[in-house]
Specification:
With about 150 residues, the chain is of the alpha/beta class. The protein is about 45% helix and about 20% strand.
């Protein structure tokens, strides 16, 4: 396996209401929280939702070489309705940001882990809801980066 190519990667945690976004450093070592984007459920079927437009702008702004989207696999390892929705979202995102690739990665426990870590730091309630999506995106991207490094 070759070494992970240099460049910023964005990690994305797709939720029903919000989308958490994290970014890596160009060396692919550390994921940090970036922003939370509101999910656009009002776009016409033939229009690009504003959340996809915002993600595309982030790809350009950060010169991302890849976007890593968390796939919510259930604890038994199966793809339920949430995974099907996220796959469809990732496909749409890939169409909007091409030729930048979109990679799906297992995010089984990212939101749970992120919530627990925030609670351990004393971040609770509304403050936690405001950043948990970004923290989940960090968990998704960091796990993926670590897995890529273990492969090299």
């Amino acid at each position: 396996m070759t070494e992970l190519s240099r460049g910023v990667r964005l990690g994305v945690d797709v939720g029903q209401v919000r989308i958490g976004v994290a970014r890596s450093d160009p060396h692919g070592v550390l994921a940090t929280p970036l922003v939370t984007v509101a999910r656009d459920r009002t776009a016409e079927p033939d229009a690009t939702p504003t959340d996809l437009v915002e993600l595309a702008a982030l790809v350009v702004e950060h010169e991302a070489v890849e976007v890593v989207v968390g796939l919510p696999v259930n604890l038994a390892g199966q793809h339920g309705p949430a995974a099907v929705q996220v796959k469809a979202y990732a496909d749409r995102l890939a169409g909007v940001i091409a030729p930048v690739p979109v990679t799906l990665t297992d995010e089984r426990m990212s939101t749970v882990v992120a919530s627990r870590r925030l609670a351990e730091r004393g971040v609770r309630g509304k403050r936690q809801r405001a950043v948990v999506d970004q923290a989940a995106a960090v968990e998704i991207l960091q796990s993926w980066l670590d897995a890529q490094r273990r492969r090299t």
